[in-house]
Each structure stands twice: as C-alpha cells, then as structure tokens.
Amino acid sequence: MSTATAPDVELRRARVAVGACFFVNAVLYANLVPRVPEVKAALDLSNGALGAALAAVPLGSLLAGLTSAALIRRFGSARLASSGLVLLSAALACVAVAPGWWALAAVLLVSGALDAIVDVAQNAHGLRVQRRFGRSILNAFHGVWSLGSVTGGLLGSAAAGLGLPLGWHLGGSAVVFSVVALLAHRWLLRGRDQDDGVGQAEGAGHDDGDGAAAAVVDGGATGGRPARGSRRPAVAALAVLGLLAACGVFVEDAGSSWSTLYLRTDLAAGPAVAGLGYVALSVAMTVGRLTGDRVVDRFGQRRVVRTGGLLAAVGMGAALALPSVPLTLVGFALAGLGVATLVPAVFQAADEVPGLPHGLGLAVSNWLLRLGLLASPLIVGVVSDAVGLRLALLVVVLAGLGAVVFGRTLRGAADRPTAGDPA
Fold it and tell me: What is the model's pTM?
C-alpha cells in the first residue's frame, strides 16, 4: 500500500462518505427483510415460489455485475456508487406495489442489477481511499455495511410490529436514504480511479499454500496485461476466491432471506422477534468487521477466515440440532461473526491480482460471489419444500466448512504487506 497523498481533511471526509454509501446500501435491502413474510402472504406464494423470486436478485446481479468495471472506468466509482444507490432505493420501494409473482421477480431483478454495480463501485472507491491511507480500513467499511444491516433490520422489524403499511414504510425509506447518498457524493474523492494504482500487487500477494495465487503474483512482474502463460493461474486464483466468497454469502443469505420465515413458521416467534434472526447475524458481523482490521493484521487473513468458518459451522449446527428461539438467535450470531472478514478479504485479494484492467479482478470476484447468492435461495427454497426449512438451513453449516477449506488460499500473518504511516 502507498502512503497518503491527499490532504487529511479531504481523505477523512472521503472515508466518511464511503462509509455512508456502504451504510445506505445495507439499509435498503435489510429494511425489507422483516416484511418478506407479509409479501409472501399477500401474493400467496409457496416457499419454492418465494425462493425463485428472491433468486431474481442474484440473477440481476449476474447479468449486470461484469459491466461494473467498464462503468467505473467511464463514470468513476464515486458517481456510480451514489447515483446507483438512489436508483436502488426506488426499485426496492416498488416491492410494496408488486401485484403478483412476475412483478415481484422483475423488481427484484432490477434491484439485484443495481446492487451489483453499486457494490463494486463502493468497494472500488473504498480500496482507493485505503490505498491513500496506507493501511487496512476495508473491513471497517464492511462493518459499517453490517451496521446498516442491523439498522435496516430493526427498522423493518419495528415497522412490522407497528403494522405500518408496506408502501409507506419502503417509500419513506427510499426518500430518506436517497438524500443521504446524494450528500455523500460531495465528499467522495475526485479524479480518475485509475490514477491511484488500482490492481497493482506490490509483491505481497496472497499465499494459497498450493501455489495458485502465488503464481498470479509471480506472473504479474511485468505490471501490465498478464502474459499468456500467467492468465491461467490468474483465472484459477479468481475462481477460488469466488468460491470462498460464495461461502460467506450463503451464510448471509440464510440470515437475510430465511431467518425471519424460519423463526416465524418453524419456531412460532412473533413478527417483531422473527426479524431478530437477521439482526443477530448482522450485529455479530458488525462487531467482527469493525474489529477485523486489527485482528487480521495480527493473525493473518487465512487463520481468521478458517477459524471463523469453523465457528459458523459449529454454532449454526448446534442451533439446528437443538431448535429454540434463543439458541437459533445465538446460532445466527455465531455464523455472522464467523464470516465477518471473509468477503472483504476476498475483495482485497482480487483487487491485488496484477496485470488486469482496472476494476476487473474486483468485478469478477463480486460476480462469482453472486453465483452463490443465485444458488442459495433456490437450493434452500426447493429443499425446504421437500424436507422442511430446518434441514435446508444446513447450508450454513456446509458453507462454514467450505470457508475452512478454501480459506487456505488467503494470506497468512507473515504474508501481509507493510502498511504506511496511519493517517
């Protein structure tokens, strides 16, 4: 990482503005999660039909995700992130007026496309700010995202408990958080993203234990477009990073898409309490991410991610084996804590793959991550219709074990780059 080159005030404002973008991005969907059972009931959907509609979100992400790198180069990550959040808030508000399954799926498809573009743009801008700071701050941005999830979950649960009409709830939220996104744009960094050394690995890379990712770093010595012989290990490294990220989002999707329904239908929790499954996961993830930069610096990404995967598998496994509302909330909390630093670690590693066009490594890893989001609601929905939602949620346990396996591709404590002076 390079040392800071921007004035302190400008850089600190940019950090706040990026955090605001992450916060708004999380609030918008989390705000809807506790109302999903009401949408399901209003449209008379089965679990499978609901899962198929929810799968439109990652499908839209897949259709649009790979365009994000080109859009960043064309419009800049700052403009793309803030304007995309405004459009996303409007799209999610339309869920309240969807007259049937097809309309719901269409709205979620557009929402997924916008979310993918915003996600890559805000992470690209966050990494840009991180490079100027000269030390790790990306986990904190994702911690703010998790804080937004908690806030959105609490807002949605409160609205459900008060019986607030869905249209008023989502429409009012769209207006408020669109204003926040537009105000944040004023403090984001100016200039071209390409001028900040994006995609350059400074020889540190990420040691994967089997040579795949290390080969990417070695192949990037020329610093430009990767040589023909280095493309294969680059593709392999991005594929492994995508699988690792998918493990994280399988856990997150179980909390966002199914925790409320599981607590409400299988464990007979009330409307307000049922929304707390996602809140518990998000609170724990927030704590893990806000403290994650220091923990990763001390122990390395590899050890933190693999230990967290084991924690998620054991915690959620115990909750499913001994079903009750309190233990289920604890299980979702342990799962959230376990995968807290996983996605930020993957994004940073993908952005450091050398010799790729600006934003491509980040966009590809984000796109592969969303393959997991596409598969997760479909798998859980279909399996739950066949054997029950409780058994279908074993996907969280499997994802935690996957993090243990694929987490070996990340940096160890001895592989981390030397940071610059704290700003």
Answer: 0.74
